[in-house]
Amino acid sequence: MPQKNARTARTANRPGYRCTECGHEVAKWVGKCPSCQAWNTVEEAAPARPALSKVAAGAPATPARPIAEVDLDSARAISTGIDELDRVLGGGIVPGAVALLAGEPGVGKSTLLLEVAHRWAAGGSGGPSLYVTGEESAGQVRLRAERTDSLHPELYLGAESDLPSVLGHVDAVKPGLLIVDSVQTVQSAEAEGSPGGVTQVRAVTTALVALAKERGLPVVLVGHVTKDGAVAGPRVLEHLVDVVLQFEGDRHSSLRMLRGIKNRFGPADEVGCFEQGDEGIIEITDPSGLFVNRQETQVPGTAVTVMVEGKRPLLAEVQALVTPTQMTIPRRAVSGLDSARVSMMLAVLDKRGNITTGDQEVFAATVGGMKVTEPAADLAIALAVASSKMDLPLPSNVIAVGEVGLAGEIRRVNAVGRRLAEAARLGFDRALIPPDCGPVPQGIRATEVRDLRSALRALRER
């Protein structure tokens, strides 16, 4: 019995190994986490301490109060000066909140945040702004500020990559807004590993979050992304911050989309539109016209739908091209759409609509670089493919909204009234919608289609 107790004690004191991405624990080191399948994320962890059966009570930092007596001033959002960014944040940035802005290199993250720092400093209500860069020199940031006309006496700039130095700048400037570009370049001497590593990123982010909560200072962190488009670093990084924003854009297009992935103070599905030019980032308050190509002559293979990003309806044009091929296996190319849903629409058209494309090449894309993943675009995709196949154009004043099921039925989608109102505002007066969608706004005539055959019949009658 004593030998068994000693062996149990040695096993309990043996260090374990834990994945830094998902927290899965294993008995020995492995190169690939068995849970999340991530490579080189398993690190040695100290043996777990035995659970305490009784915890002594301590003095609370602040006494508990009735919820009606809690002060709301500390939770009110402050405008950043950029309406599109405020829309995604839920009205502005909350004091003490930590936001993470991620995006590919060269998409315009630094340019956007430099404009945010300039607007904040020019506002004067929230105090000076401090922009800390660890990737560029102060002279490089100054040149960008001159090019984008972002110079202001209350905008302070520091080029530091050491965490204590960053905190020293905060003590000296006492800013109302802190921007760190980027969190992967800042390092702490108290943490092991190289800058950008899992341990360093976690330690730096934890320290900045504690600083923000202690002083009520809004902090914006710039983060890198991996090849898959996910936020680089440990998964716990997204859990530590309050807001996670994704800045997206194509290198061959000036359009930039800011999406909210996580937001503790507002909606997490809003989107903001920007345009990057020689003079910096410009916000686009009415982007619907960017995603629709209005032509004088009607062309087969085009259909217009209305997407809803958060609370904002956006018109999107779907284009399809069905053409014969000499290849054994016809090609399928998709841009801006979900390839799985396009393949499903081709199968439903073949089975339920007698529109066969198995021996022809099919190309489907959106206009303006917009990414459409909402099922409400199914009807527009199906009509665009059928229009190209039959060489019969849709009327230029018609939009199509609805989800197509595998049985060919047209299912209802949310916010149909808001979608139709946006279409009517831009000059569309006819719509193909699912049945039982509620009242239709004035200025547009809606035709209910219950299945794909009735939608194709309306196309053929046209």
Descriptive notes:
There is one protein chain. This protein is an alpha/beta fold. It folds into three domains: 2-45; 79-285, 3-Layer(aba) Sandwich (Rossmann fold), CATH 3.40.50.300; 290-461, 2-Layer Sandwich (Ribosomal Protein S5, domain 2). Helices cover 27% and strands 24% of the residues. The chain has a nine-stranded mixed β-sheet with strand order 6-5-7-8-4-9-10-11-12, with helices on both faces. Helix 8 (339-352) crosses helix 9 (378-390) and helix 9 (378-390) crosses helix 11 (452-461). The protein is globular.
Give the arrangement of secondary structure elements.
Layout: H1 2-13, E1 16-19, E2 25-26, E3 42-45, H2 83-89, E4 98-103, H3 109-123, E5 129-133, H4 138-147, E6 155-159, H5 163-173, E7 177-181, H6 198-215, E8 219-223, H7 236-240, E9 243-249, E10 255-263, E11 271-277, E12 280-283, E13 302-309, E14 312-324, E15 332-335, H8 339-352, E16 360-366, H9 378-390, E17 398-400, E18 403-404, E19 410-411, H10 416-425, E20 430-433, E21 445-448, H11 452-461
Parallel strand pairs: 4-8, 4-9, 5-6, 5-7, 7-8, 15-16, 17-20, 20-21
Antiparallel strand pairs: 1-2, 1-3, 9-10, 10-11, 11-12, 13-14, 14-16, 18-19
Helix pairs in contact: 8-9, 9-11
